[in-house]
Amino acid sequence: MSDLATFINLGFHHIVNPEALDHILFLLALAAVYRRQDWRDALWVITAFTVGHSITLALAVTGALVLPTPIIEFLIPLTIVVTALENIAVRARAVTPWHGRYRAMFTAAFGLVHGAGFANYLRSLFDGPIAIPLFGFNVGIELGQILVLSVAAVFLSGIDRALSAHRTGLSSAAYRWRVVGVSAAVVLVAARMAVERSPW
Max Cα separation, the chain? Predict the structure, then answer.
């Protein structure tokens, strides 16, 4: 297996591994507010996350940015909690600033935090030229994210179908229950992670 393929594989498994539950939860929190017809908005937000984590991953792995691992590991579940709480707090995205597009900005900022977490893992795996490992690892992360988001989309669509089984479509109330239910579950798990990882 080539070096590129090796690092693609490492990046992919870093996301889909059950031990990467924090990153999986963050993606689920991001996806929780979207329905099938919202795919453009979802793509915009996920792209912002990718840009954010790619920047920090590159800076941290090259040594241009040094961040303490305990702080990063604590901040990651906090980004999940904030994202899920925003899901619960915002009822009508169409009437929020920029019709909810502000979400891409805070997702990009949270991506910076997650990128530092990816970098701490990647930096421990190699010693030498970084171009191929960095590129391959990032590609693997993106492939892993696509898989996680695809599974999340199937999961959320299944909930929607169950809620609308006896109706002609998913009512706004049923959709709201789905968003709040999924987001509340994510908050509980992520808050526990934050407490367990507290550096104080």
Answer: 60
Q: Tell whether pTM > 0.70.
A: yes
Query: Cα separation of 48 and 26, whole Å?
Result: 13
Q: Helix-strand-coil percent breakdown of the chain, rounded to 5?
A: 80, 0, 20
Give the phi and the psi of residue 9 in degrees, each rounded to 5: -60, -40
For residue 144, give both structure tokens: 């892993």
User: Could you tell me where the beta strands, DSSP code E, fall in the chain?
Assistant: none
Express each pLDDT in 142-156 by its tens digit: 999 999 999 999 999
- Exposure of 111 by Cβ count < 10 A (0-12 exposed, 13-18 middle, 19+ buried)? buried
Contact between residue 25 and residue 186 where contact means Cβ atoms under 8 Å apart: yes
User: Which residue stretches of 90-130 are H helix?
Assistant: 102-123
Return the number of other C-beta atoms located less than 10 Å from residue 126's C-beta.
17
Distance separating alpha carbons of residues 107 and 187, to the nearest angstrom: 16
Token pair 């990128």 is found at 115
Phi and psi (nearest 5°) for 170? -75, 115
pLDDT in tens, 77-134: 999 999 999 999 988 766 666 666 788 898 999 999 999 888 877 777 766 777 888 8
